[in-house]
Structure formats: structure tokens, C-alpha cells
Write a structure and sequence with these properties.
Helix content is about 30%, strand content about 15%. α3 runs parallel beside α6. The protein has 11 helices and 14 strands. It has one domain: TIM Barrel (Alpha-Beta Barrel), CATH 3.20.20. It is of the alpha/beta class and about 375 residues long. Bound molecules: 2-Phenylacrylic acid (8OZ).
């Protein structure tokens, strides 16, 4: 029987344990330029462990892909150089680190866009709620501009170039962010995709961009170093599909033919994507639901504790568990879970933006 502390093969990598660090937006890149800093390298290095997998935070693949201030990018030479220090710090401790490739689509604001233009999306459907502007203000979302069909290839090319840049920066692989109401999920879901071209309409068409972006990354990396993150039952950023099982069964089957490193699912009980204390009970488990049709490694995430993660792995519901909030407050989380040590509580007030406080100053065991 597998346990949280038994090894796991992911693509070419032999993980020593199954406690994965989830991709976590912390809004602490250096501005201007949204460049990873020495502080970011310290933070990731603190959370690295021998044979442990870190999925680094969502990083915009181009300027127009950005939707929040001070999130790091992976499209400029300065950003690649900044990330090199991060991957170096993680590798120095024997860790493995993937980068999450991110395009927010309509969850942006014109203040982030080149030339102050409108955010782009599959269709001109405005999200409910408020954007996070380039000056850290909250403003109502704008109605995005629908991408022209002949602009879509450039989006795919940005994924490919970002994948190349991640390789240059020393990452071990990439994860395609297909979750939480951002661009690729906007294409997947019928509420946000009203297109009538080859990228809209049927499920086949709606999942085309996700599949093509994933294939572009796989051309760079080999499919066994590319993962995909999905939130089939999620409602973050005004997302949600009326019949998620129908849509996501097809998506998971299609991705399952590509030979990917892993599929990373977000459990519906954490569907607020970390922005609030969401804990729905009595909803289906995403991992349990899709496990039978996914042929590879399955990572699950969302409000797990050590005991529930151990139970999910022992029951075969998933191969590994990604932890977000617990990893923020416990840099040595794998060791704490292994030894049953007490966990430091997290402070939500310092999740997004700021400096060391609530970022690199959480204590290690025995310190
Ligand atoms: C919380 C706050 C900001 C961004 C996601 C990248 O929802 C995020 C995110 C989460 O996947």
C-alpha cells in the first residue's frame, strides 16, 4: 500500500515522498518587470526537500496574460535570470521544481495590459466581481475583448516560448494552469466560450486551446515533464460548468492520451482557490471521480491535512497531495507531517503582496 512517505515516479523524476507544494500566488515579484527576486529564491529554497516536488506559482506567459500586480512573469530575460536563482536554491536541497504557466484571460484589467487595452478572452463576457489592478486597487471587471481566430496561434506560441524560458531558467518541468476561471478554463466552459470558430461550440472545440497549449509545452519538454491543473467542480473567478462531468470526462480522456507527467486536480471543497475559507461538504471528490479514467499520476489538492492526505493515498484516490496554505506557514511541512509535529497556523493577511513578513519568516522545527 502506498503512503504519503513512499516514493513516487513522476515522469523521469523519482519523488522521495508525496507531499507536493501547490502553486501559490504571493504577489512578491520585483516591480517594474515582475521579476523573481533573491527573497523569492529564499522562500522556495526554504520549502524544498530532498526528492520533494514544488510547483512554483502561476507565472504570466506574456504581458497580456497578467491579471494581478507583482505576480512573476516568464517572458523576459530578467525574469528568466530571477527564476534561475529560485531553481538553484531548490536544486541545492535536492528538490524538484516545476513552473506553472498562467494566462488569466478575462480575469485581468486594462491597467495590466500593453497599451492599456482590454483583457482578452474567448468571448466578450464580463466576469462578476472585481479585478486586482496594477496599482493594487479593486475595480469592477471590464468586458474583455474576444480573441480573433487568427490571434489564437500567438497565444499557443506564448505557451511554447514560456515553456522554453522555463527550461532556460532551470526548472524540471512545467504545469499548464487550466483551472480556477482563467483563460484555458474560460475556453473550456460554455458560460464563457460563445465562439463559433474551431475553438468554441462543441466540447472538442472548447478544449482545443487547452490541448494545443499543453502539446506546445510538451514539444519543448517532452510530455513526461508537463502536468496540467484542472478544477472540474470549481467556482473561482465566476467560473463553473452546468454539467462538469460531461465536459471534464472528455477533457481528462483527451489529456490522458498525451503521456503527461501528471494531472493535478483541485477538490471542490477548496473551490474558492484559496481566496476564502471555503469548505463545502458532501460534494464529490474530483480525484475519486476522475481517477478511473486517468491513466497516469494523479495529484490532488484542496484543504488536505496530514491524516486526510494519508487516507486519500492509502485508498488509492490519488498518488500525491499538494498543500498550499499549510506550506505557506510550514516551510518544513514534509518533515512535520512525517513526524507528526505541530503545524504553525497561517496568517491570511500576509498571503498576497508585502515582503518577508508572512513569507520567509515562518519558523522551522526546532528553531
Ligand atoms: C489566489 C489569489 C490569486 C491568484 C489561482 C493563481 O486561483 C490563482 C490565485 C489564487 O489559481
Amino acid at each position: 500500500m502506498s503512503s504519503l512517505f513512499s516514493p513516487l515516479q513522476i515522469g523521469p523524476y523519482r519523488l522521495a515522498h508525496r507531499v507536493v507544494m501547490a502553486p501559490l500566488t504571493r504577489m512578491r515579484a520585483t516591480r517594474p518587470g515582475d521579476v523573481p527576486s533573491a527573497l523569492n529564491a529564499l522562500y522556495y529554497g526554504q520549502r524544498a526537500s530532498r526528492g520533494g516536488l514544488i510547483i512554483a506559482e502561476g507565472s504570466q506567459i506574456s504581458r497580456s496574460a497578467q491579471g494581478m500586480p507583482a505576480t512573476p512573469g516568464i517572458y523576459s530575460a530578467e525574469q528568466i535570470a530571477g527564476w534561475k536563482a529560485v531553481t538553484h536554491a531548490v536544486h541545492a536541497k535536492g528538490g524538484i521544481i516545476f513552473l506553472q504557466l498562467w494566462h488569466v484571460g478575462r480575469i485581468s484589467h486594462s491597467s495590466h495590459q500593453p497599451g492599456g487595452g482590454l483583457p482578452v478572452a474567448p468571448s466578450a463576457v464580463r466576469p462578476a466581481g472585481e479585478a486586482f489592478t496594477a496599482t493594487f486597487e479593486r475595480k469592477p471587471f471590464e468586458t474583455p475583448r474576444a480573441l480573433e481566430t487568427d490571434e489564437i496561434q500567438a497565444v499557443i506560441d506564448s505557451y511554447r516560448q514560456a515553456a522554453r524560458n522555463a527550461r532556460e531558467a532551470g526548472f524540471d518541468g512545467v504545469e499548464i494552469h487550466g483551472a480556477n476561471g482563467y483563460l484555458l478554463e474560460q475556453f473550456l466552459q460554455s458560460r464563457t466560450n460563445r465562439r463559433t470558430d474551431a475553438y468554441g461550440g462543441s466540447i472538442e472545440n472548447r478544449m482545443r486551446l487547452l490541448v494545443e497549449a499543453t502539446q506546445a509545452a510538451a514539444e519543448v519538454w517532452g510530455a513526461d515533464r508537463v502536468g496540467v491543473r484542472l478544477s472540474p467542480f470549481g467556482v473561482a473567478n465566476d467560473s463553473g460548468e452546468a454539467e462538469p462531468l460531461v465536459l471534464y470526462s472528455r477533457v481528462v480522456e483527451a489529456l490522458g492520451t498525451l503521456g503527461l507527467a501528471y494531472l493535478h486536480l483541485i477538490e471542490p471543497r477548496a473551490s474558492g482557490a484559496g481566496q476564502a475559507e471555503v469548505d463545502h461538504q458532501g460534494v464529490p471528490s474530483a480525484a475519486e471521480t476522475f481517477r478511473p479514467i486517468w491513466p497516469g499520476v494523479l495529484i490532488t489538492a484542496g484543504n488536505f491535512r496530514g491524516d486526510t492526505a494519508e487516507a486519500a493515498i492509502a485508498a488509492g484516490q490519488a498518488d500525491a497531495v499538494a498543500f498550499g496554505r499549510l506550506f505557506i506557514a510550514n516551510p518544513d511541512l514534509p518533515e512535520r507531517l512525517r513526524s507528526g509535529a505541530a503545524l504553525t497556523p497561517y496568517n491570511r493577511g500576509t498571503f498576497y503582496g508585502g515582503t518577508e513578513a508572512g513569507y520567509t519568516d515562518y519558523p522551522f522545527l526546532g528553531v
